[in-house]
Amino acid sequence: MGDIDLVFVVAGAAALLAAALPGLIDRLPVSLPVLFVAAGLLLYALPLDLPVPDPVGRRAALEHLTELTLIVSLMGAGLALNRPFGPRAWATTARLLVIVLPVTTLLVAGAAYALLAWPLAAALLLGAALAPTDPVLASDVRVGEPTDDPEHDDDEVRFALTSEAGLNDGLAFPLVWTAIVAAGAGGVGKLVAVDFGYSIAAGVAVGLVVGWLLGRLFFGSERPVRLAERNEGFVALAATLLAYGIAEVLHGYGFVAVFTTGCAIRAAERSHGYHGVLHGFIEQVERLLTVWLLLLLGGFVASGGLSALTWQGAAVGLLLLLVIRPLAGWAALYGGPAGPRERRVIAFFGVRGVGSLFYVAFALGQADFGVPPEALWAVVAFTVLGSVCLHGLTSTPVLGRLDRLRRHRRLPAPGR
Hints:
The chain is an all-alpha fold.
């Protein structure tokens, strides 16, 4: 089981590093996820009595930990976005959700079916789990803290990646349920009627109602209960749990509800400084949970978690990161609001992470997919690890160059 006192030491040290490292690596071509995965590899390579990360034996615990991390991240993403909803303003996001998400699912499933010779249900699960981009590990390419800066709001790359990650984790649920149904654990009628219809609508409705009510409580109530006057950030966590819990009780998609709640709270009073307080608190909770998960991911790899990985499984993950997502994103965004350079960056930065881990853990608790769970976990963990390295090492230089080019275009001509 491991030494629990040593676990406390490691958890505390990781929390301190999570607070100190962002300022130290701000301008370096390396991300926090890369460093903490490497730290997990190092820790578990040492002769320490740490508990071995076992996603098969501790599936339920992993499901709930990733679930909590995701909803916290989704609230942060919703609070950060300041662009009013509209067909033109959200056109890039719509293309990523309506075209790229299902196309990526089908292409990854096809690759798994062809290369790994997995049953259809297992191939569909892999495609559905790896298709959504991740709001947690994509922090380096997300919209930052809430601000009124119009340059911040007009950044099509960060807005598109943030809004895509905020919505596609919930919208991927019907795709995951398709795989579960294919494995023989449900009915097609229920899938279409509930998961493709009611659950999405209920998630959006709950998010809008809870967000509107909380917006009134934060910004529109009488002074004794006007929470914006108190600068208490932990109510962002209360909003997250409320929206998620209510949506799930009503059999809606909690992920959609949480992101929608964050957007609705931001829309209630876009220019108020309290949004910075809420976002700051939720970002700290997200970072804390994320670094612990990344240590476990590194420990999983160091403990032999990739021993079930074949070259075919690795090929599927690399195809997703280097071919499927970039090409699908580039083609889907053609003719849209994003310029050619922005289109290439959005297509490339399809970060995979905690969402993929959650969906596999959830699905394995619902049905038997006809392949060893270790094989599924090996492919997913390899893909997430590849995304952490590939996107973590390139995000700072690529986005930095894009920002410099954007500022250069806005500079006035000499002599004016």
